[in-house]
Design a protein that fits this description.
Rossmann fold, four-stranded parallel beta sheet, binds alpha-L-rhamnopyranose
């Protein structure tokens, strides 16, 4: 009996020591200096991502001892992001949060980073499952896609031609939303509506503006545009106003209230939606930090306590959904435009 007790005590001591060692390994960054978390965005010069960066800085400040490195290529390409991630691996950062320009093209470089011990997650626009620990989606893809169609249908009384002005043709998030838009359009409610074109403005203002102009030209009976990108929707608003087509062609999509305020107020875009990009950047940075510290496992089913955002659960495909988008119109746009 006594021997059994000694054995149990010995085993307990071994486990305790292993636990302490493991814990020390995970939290090494604490002693060594600042934890470095890189946020790699689709491209620079996009206010949406600058708001994500602000949220990341807020999390860094709250968590303490964190340096946030904000980077992105000048145009939204996977090649540009691969180069950046390669250099972040060489710099031995602790974690990388990516908004991907391509679902598959980033897998090899993301795997290389993870092999080097870097915690890799995607946010906003996902890397395929094998190339990241988890993906933080702002909202569910199905919900976003279907609600965009419902909004434009309401604006054009369920009748007429519509077009989609998207971001880049490889963007994971927009492509998934567009798939859901197409599924929603199959419903009988939309039998009098027709999707006539999907064009890509590459999240560049001038290209998006030209694509909007192109739509007006090639589809003279166009009644509505869905632009599920903050850059595209703002450029479409400007194109509609410059050509006097506001009101004749309705506009909706995902827009930054601060950039869309004038169009929402004057009726060019009577309704649109978006989540809070500050919250998205905050949550991504917070999750990356907790993964490095070993406080989150990043496995399906885990409920992560994400600071001021509360509980976020990791679901199928290791995708975690942050929240539901807000819907904006002339009655609430001022309030939101003051924030982001
Ligand atoms: C653009 C980007 C981003 C997307 C928003 C809605 O800023 O394409 O990835 O989430 O629009």
């Amino acid at each position: 009996m006594k021997r059994v007790r000694i054995l149990i005590t010995a085993l307990f001591m071994i486990f305790l020591a292993a636990g302490l060692l493991f814990g020390a390994g995970e939290k090494e960054v604490e002693k060594e200096g600042k934890m470095r978390i890189a946020m790699v965005v689709k491209n620079l010069g996009n206010s949406f991502f600058e708001a994500c960066r602000d949220g990341g800085l807020e999390a860094a400040e709250e968590l303490g001892n964190v340096e946030l490195i904000y980077q992105g290529p000048s145009t939204p390409t996977a090649e540009g992001q691969i180069e950046i991630i390669d250099s972040l691996i060489a710099q031995k950062v602790d974690a990388i949060a990516i908004s991907a320009n391509d679902v598959d093209a980033l897998i090899p470089i993301a795997k290389k980073a993870m092999k080097a011990g870097i915690k890799v997650i995607s946010f906003d626009s996902g890397v395929a499952e094998e190339g990241r620990i988890l993906h933080l989606a702002p909202s569910g893809d199905e919900f976003i896609g279907r609600s965009q169609v419902k909004m434009i249908a309401g604006l054009i009384d369920y009748k007429g031609e519509i077009a989609i002005l998207s971001a880049s043709s490889q963007a994971t998030n927009q492509n998934s939303w567009i798939e859901w838009m197409k599924k929603e359009l199959e419903k009988a409610d939309y039998k009098d509506m027709k999707l006539v074109s999907v064009v890509y403005g590459d999240d560049l203002s001038d290209k998006s503006y030209r694509e909007a102009m192109g739509l007006f030209k090639s589809h003279p009976n166009l009644r509505g545009i869905i632009s599920p990108t903050t850059v595209g929707i703002a450029a479409s608003g400007k194109a509609l106003e410059d050509t006097g087509k506001a009101g004749k062609i309705e506009l909706t999509g995902l827009g930054l209230p601060s950039e869309m305020k004038q169009y929402v107020k004057n009726g060019t875009c009577r309704e649109m939606s978006l989540w809070n990009p500050i919250d998205l950047g905050y949550s991504s940075t917070y999750i990356a930090y907790k993964l490095v510290m070993g406080d989150f496992s990043g496995k399906k089913g885990e409920v992560m306590k994400v600071g001021r955002m509360g509980d976020i659960r990791i679901g199928d495909g290791n995708v975690a959904i942050m929240s539901e988008p807000y819907v904006f119109n002339k009655d609430n746009i001022d309030k939101f435009a003051a924030i982001y």
